[in-house]
């Protein structure tokens, strides 16, 4: 287990955008942090009122936006147009190529969100867009909720990668355990609160990389909100 503390992330401040990068991205380069397995990007972005990313293109990437506060307006070349808010689960499949824009939907409040890139296991598929509101994400519970999986198991949305993505808020003083098979790795991204992870303290903004077959135990949770990725080690 390796902890990447929040303050070690790459930082960008260009006025309308304040961003913190868990892995190398854009002008931030760190050869020791190029991703973890198929997980390539986790950027925590805060966009000022009226600000946003003008139309630009992507290909062959699974792009997830997980909104923490405010509303994120999405529009793409496939005709999809929506506002993503806390509790929504959203993913854009870039596939053979797609163009999109993302803007703060508000003229008075900031929007804060995690932008996550997962390298797909199938290339040149048709571009796509999925979005779903999951009420369970708003309430603290005893376990995290599966929001993405390769097969779209249960209420989760499908992902072009052998990865299970969990999200949610844990009740205070909860213990949550997850055992990774020997062929799989994990990544925990802490959004809010604190907890012990295998006995080590983590807090908001911290990321934790887990090796194949490692046992994951969260305990002594306090206001804890996180994402957890269980992914193929290939």
Write a structural description:
The strands form three sheets. Strands 1, 13, 14, 15, 16, 17, 18, 19, 20 and 21 form a ten-stranded mixed beta sheet that branches. The protein has a seven-stranded antiparallel beta sheet with strand order 2-3-4-11-6-9-12, with no helix packed on it. Strands 5-10-7-8 form a four-stranded antiparallel beta sheet, with no helix packed on it. It is globular, with a radius of gyration of 17 Å. It is mostly beta strands and 234 residues long. The chain has strands at 2-4, 10-13, 17-21, 39-47, 52-58, 62-69, 72-76, 81-84, 88-93, 98-104, 111-118, 128-133, 140-141, 145-149, 157-158, 163-170, 176-179, 184-197, 200-203, 207-210, 215-232. It is 0% helix and 57% strand. It has no helices and 21 strands.
Span of the ends, CA to CA? 18 Å
Proportion in β-strands: over 45%
| Element order: H for helix, E for strand | EEEEEEEEEEEEEEEEEEEEE
Total beta strands = 21
Helix content: under 10%
Low-confidence stretches: none
- Helical segment count: 0
What's the main sheet like? 10 strands, mixed
What form results from the Cα inertia axes? globular
Mean pLDDT: 97
């Amino acid at each position: 287990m390796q902890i990447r503390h929040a303050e070690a992330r790459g930082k960008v401040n260009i006025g309308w955008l304040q961003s913190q990068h868990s892995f190398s991205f854009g002008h931030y380069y760190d050869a020791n942090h190029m991703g973890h397995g198929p997980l390539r990007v986790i950027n925590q972005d805060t966009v000022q009122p009226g600000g946003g990313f003008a139309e630009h293109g992507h290909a062959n990437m699974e792009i997830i936006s997980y909104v923490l506060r405010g509303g994120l307006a999405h529009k793409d070349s496939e005709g999809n147009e929506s506002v993503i808010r806390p509790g929504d689960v959203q993913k854009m499949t870039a596939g053979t190529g797609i163009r999109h824009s993302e803007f703060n939907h508000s003229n008075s409040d900031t929007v804060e969100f995690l932008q996550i890139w997962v390298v797909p296991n199938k290339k040149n598929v048709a571009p796509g867009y999925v979005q779903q509101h999951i009420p369970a994400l708003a309430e603290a519970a005893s376990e995290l909720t599966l929001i993405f999986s390769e097969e779209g198991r249960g209420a989760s949305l499908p992902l072009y990668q052998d990865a299970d993505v969990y999200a949610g808020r844990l009740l205070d003083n909860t213990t949550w355990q997850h055992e990774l098979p020997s062929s799989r790795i994990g990544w925990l991204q802490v959004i809010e609160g604190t907890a012990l992870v295998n006995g080590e303290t983590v807090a908001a903004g911290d990321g934790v990389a887990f090796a194949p077959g490692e046992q994951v135990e969260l305990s002594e949770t306090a206001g804890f909100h996180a994402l957890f990725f269980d992914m193929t080690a290939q």
